[in-house]
Write a structure and sequence with these properties.
Elements: E1 11-14, E2 17-25, E3 28-35, E4 40-44, E5 49-56, E6 58-63, E7 66-71, E8 75-78, E9 84-88, E10 92-99, H1 103-106
Antiparallel strand pairs: 1-2, 2-3, 3-10, 4-9, 5-8, 5-10, 6-7, 6-9
Length: about 110
């Protein structure tokens, strides 16, 4: 699969967050999420493993009851079913990788 960034339409998922699904197939998916300052990725859990990379901006990230300030270049790993969420402290972009792919994002 080859994905041309300029050909992908972002989806406004509300609350100041836009999701852009990049490459995905079978056991893996990569997603870009753009957050406006103050946008909140509500705490949630899912059966997927997740690795995330902060492309720009700054987040207050909470996982399993602990909070961290994450900035451009920082990464984190989320095991399956662990509660996590984030608040954008400034306009920010994050790159998420999921395994297996998030079928719920595709429907």
């Amino acid at each position: 699969m080859v994905v041309k960034y300029n050909e992908i339409q972002g989806t406004d998922i509300g609350g100041g967050i836009t999701r852009r699904i990049l490459a995905h197939e079978g056991g893996m998916m990569i997603v870009e999420a753009t957050f406006q300052k103050g946008a909140v990725g509500t705490a949630h859990r899912h059966p997927h493993e997740q690795v995330s990379y902060i492309l720009s901006g700054k987040f207050r990230y909470t996982m399993d009851g602990e909070s961290y300030i994450l900035e451009k270049g920082d990464t984190y790993y989320v095991p399956p079913e662990v509660l996590h969420g984030a608040e954008a402290l400034e306009d920010s972009v994050i790159l998420d990788v999921f395994t297996p792919q998030r079928e719920d994002f595709l429907s």
